[in-house]
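Let's practice the habit of predicting before peeking. Look at the sequence and jot down your guess about where helices and strands might fall. Then scroll down.
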Amino acid sequence: MDDSAINTEAAALPPTREPAVRKLHGLRLWFSTYLAWLIVLFALSQATFARYEAGDQSAMALWLLALMGFYLTLCNTLLPLPTSWIFMLLATDDVMLFDSVWLRVAAISVIGATSTMMANLNEYHVFAYFLRARLGYRIRRTNVYKWAARWFDVSPFQTLTLIAFVPIPVDFVRWLAILRRYPRRLYAAAYWIGRLPRYALLAGAAVVLKLNTLEILLLQLVLIAVLGARLAWTALRRKQSPPSPANP
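Done guessing? Here is the structure:
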């Protein structure tokens, strides 16, 4: 077979294409929904605070829950604010959100899980937008991504739910789900299901241990310090690791 025949066969082969990734639709609709959610929470906090100032003591609970929801909706990788303190604080007798402890824990857990779900869905759409072209394609071609994708695809919903429950931040799993274009409804459901018991445990612990405001503040500072030390140690290890030898 001569060179001309080989060239003819090569020309007949289909061109190499990038891995197929589902296009993410509804970006404008989502960002409009997210903004509307924030506006509703802000308006609710304003209205309930006005009622509270007018002498309606029952409005204080709705005001604090609306503020909590607004705050948590902003908290994700894009704005990594501390969150543990707010669940414990609102559950304490110092705040006395409701007389019933069960109602306190239930309200804090449900509104907290829903608000965190909205925050993570917003992160999903923002990251998907910026990873839709060359950067996302380059990441998907790496061996690390291919290995992680095979691991993630074994049980994606259970993995996301577990990661949402554990208090250790494992952001790369969320980013992997975004790169894989994991269905948004399942992504949202996994985080809601995982965060609900996590927040219930935080609120319940504050009630059982009878924590006060100062103790909760100190506990949150300790958590921040531990996380900061972990990040600093990781950065130091990367800086001290020897560079890989150059290829000859």
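How did you do? Residues 101-130 form the longest helix (30 residues).
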